[in-house]
């Protein structure tokens, strides 16, 4: 009993010390943009016939208030983000859709603010279903966040298995290393695995609806001295009510504000292995066979591995859009790649 009480006291003391450490820091100043120019999700929808806060605005205020880590100002108008406004905040959070009314001057200022290390960026769910025309210096928004919505075969409530990648990370610690979930998950175009460190991805060995390519869920990116975090989770209010998701948002805000350590070094080789795992799982091979082959593929030539992963990504645009669509181009490319991977992973 004494040992149990001692352990409880120790855990309580550690928890209290963490809270005290957060509260001892100056509060991070967050500006939350929940603007929908395209599809409007429930977490960013105001109550009917009301100008009251959205579910995600309420959640962010609660996370900031309960942790003491940050204060948050919310808006649904991107025009509120100006070069002058950036001087008064530390982190931008986007839950957005469509072509936002962000001027070239403001987008240049946002990128400079992040690259200098003065600001951080957190993108949630449909932040990758966001874009606007831009031809100025540095990157387009799509290149900046490193992906653009290209459909969501995994619709709201779809059963999923999510696996952690990238080793231990303070922005991933709220979740188990592997867990079942139900969410709407995107797949992406304009995604470059060499630019980001993926922290969570779909594992198709235990996800009923399979695809033969890599589907990242959460990633981080270093941009100059600044940091970017993106999570595809957050489609439904129920996810926003999940304590683990709330903890991850808190950690992401603290991490992008340089209040937490953690690497954003890209992990393209690990992503490539998971792309080949997706390919093998799509072939409905037993999980034991997939695991055995993956163990062998970890020793594969790096150049071949990255090329094979690129070939899996190239399958997505070939996927037949409708059941009656011509499948020949996809099947030809898929079968050729599968044969190559199977040959490389034989005992």
TrEMBL record:
Domain of life: Bacteria
Entry-linked PROSITE patterns: PROKAR_LIPOPROTEIN (PS51257)
Family matches, as InterPro entries: Class_I_gatase-like, ThuA-like
The organism of origin for this protein: Caulobacter vibrioides (strain ATCC 19089 / CIP 103742 / CB 15) (Caulobacter crescentus)
Protein name: ThuA-like domain-containing protein
Ranges where the ThuA-like domain occurs: 57-256
Signal peptide feature range: 1-24
Listed Pfam families: ThuA
UniProt cross-references to SUPFAM superfamilies, sorted A to Z: Class I glutamine amidotransferase-like
Keywords, comma-separated and alphabetical: Signal
């Amino acid at each position: 009993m004494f040992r149990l009480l001692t352990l409880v006291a120790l855990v309580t003391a550690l928890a209290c010390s963490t809270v005290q450490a957060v509260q001892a820091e100056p509060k991070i100043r967050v500006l939350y943009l929940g603007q929908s120019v395209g599809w409007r999700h429930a977490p960013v929808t105001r109550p009917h016939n009301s100008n009251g806060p959205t579910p995600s605005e309420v959640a962010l205020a609660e996370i900031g208030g309960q942790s003491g880590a940050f204060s948050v100002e919310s808006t649904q108008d991107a025009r509120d983000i100006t070069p002058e406004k950036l001087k008064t905040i530390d982190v931008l959070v986007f839950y957005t859709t469509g072509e936002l009314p962000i001027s070239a001057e403001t987008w240049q200022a946002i990128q400079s603010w992040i690259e200098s290390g003065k600001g951080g960026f957190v993108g949630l769910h449909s932040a990758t279903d966001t874009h606007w025309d831009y031809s100025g210096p540095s990157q387009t928004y799509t290149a900046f966040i490193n992906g653009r919505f290209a459909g969501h075969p995994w619709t709201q409530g779809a059963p999923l298995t999510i696996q952690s990648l990238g080793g231990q990370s303070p922005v991933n610690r709220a979740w188990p290393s592997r867990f079942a979930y139900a969410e709407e998950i995107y797949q992406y175009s304009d995604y470059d695995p060499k630019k980001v460190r993926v922290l969570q991805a779909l594992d198709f060995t235990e996800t009923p609806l399979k695809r033969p390519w890599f589907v990242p869920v959460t990633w981080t990116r270093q941009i100059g001295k600044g940091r970017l975090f993106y999570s595809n989770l957050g489609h439904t209010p129920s996810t926003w009510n999940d304590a683990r998701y709330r903890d991850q948002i808190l950690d992401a805000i603290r991490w992008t504000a340089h209040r937490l350590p953690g690497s954003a070094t890209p992990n393209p080789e690990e992503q490539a292995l998971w792309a080949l795992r997706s390919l093998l799982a799509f072939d409905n091979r037993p999980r034991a066979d997939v695991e055995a082959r993956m163990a062998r593929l970890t020793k594969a030539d790096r150049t071949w591995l990255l090329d094979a992963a690129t070939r899996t990504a190239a399958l997505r645009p070939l996927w037949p859009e409708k059941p009656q669509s011509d499948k020949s181009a996809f099947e030809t490319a898929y079968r050729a790649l599968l044969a190559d991977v199977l040959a490389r992973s034989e005992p």
